[in-house]
UniProtKB/TrEMBL annotation:
Keywords from the named record: Membrane, Transmembrane, Transmembrane helix
Annotated TM spans: 12-34, 54-78, 90-114, 148-164, 171-190, 196-214
Organism: Tropicimonas aquimaris
Top-rank taxon, per record: Bacteria
The name this protein goes by in its record: DUF4386 family protein
């Protein structure tokens, strides 16, 4: 299997992790205020004690698996763009690997938060809630609460794909909108709506890019040097 096709599989995996994340968020965590400024930290701490495995599996899916797949996709897309737009390819590689690192870091912090909160909750429920709230803030700062780096990476890939014609127009247009939504999470008043738009747009974009890479709509540029 080539890096080109591995990148396609990685893109589909990224989209799948987003779908899984939204599924649990909407069915179990939204009633707790998860993802909002009114999150019930005591309820989340109680859930961490009752079902730590569920939360760790969720964090591992949306962060750990996603971050590892992002790293593969980042390199695959950079290699695809390199022959025609080497500058954009270099920037996209840097932004993508930075994003993957932040995502992995957020996931490790999130899992530690579950483990420590679960252990403390039986003897000190309020302390557990406070601990989880503190670690959750770190998680959000790394990337769970904003999509600035991710938005910049998708925007960069989309611009490079447009200039080089190495990505289908549909995925480029979708990537431009998704990337802008990610950058909009920098504005507090737009944070929640922009984050949702980035997540939903990201699902469609990852699936579109993954499909394009697996179909190999055009042969890798490295086979056709200019």
């Amino acid at each position: 299997m080539t890096l080109h096709h591995s990148g396609g599989i990685a893109a589909l995996l990224c989209g799948a992790t987003y779908v899984a994340g939204f599924a649990l968020l909407l069915t179990l965590l939204t009633p707790l205020g998860y993802g909002t400024e009114e999150i019930d930290t005591r309820a989340v701490a109680a859930l961490a004690e009752a079902q730590p495995g569920l939360l760790i599996a969720w964090n591992s899916t949306i962060y750990i698996a996603n971050g590892l797949a992002l790293a593969v996709l980042t390199v695959a897309l950079a290699e695809r763009l390199q022959p025609r737009v080497p500058g954009w390819a270099g920037v996209s590689r840097a932004l993508g690997l930075i994003w993957a690192t932040l995502v992995l870091g957020a996931g490790m912090v999130a899992n530690v938060a579950v483990e420590r909160t679960s252990a403390l909750h039986a003897t000190d429920p309020q302390g557990a809630a406070d601990l989880w709230g503190t670690l959750h803030a770190v998680e959000l700062g790394l990337g769970g609460g904003n999509e600035i780096v991710g938005g910049a990476w998708i925007l960069c890939i989309s611009i490079a794909g447009l200039v080089s014609r190495r990505l289908p127009r549909g995925s480029v247009a979708l990537g431009l909108l998704t990337g802008l939504a990610g950058l909009a999470t920098l504005v507090p008043a737009l944070g929640t709506a922009a984050g949702a738009g980035f997540g939903l747009g990201g699902i469609a974009w990852f699936l579109a890019v993954g499909t394009a890479l697996l179909r190999d709509l055009s042969r890798p540029a490295t086979h056709h040097p200019k």
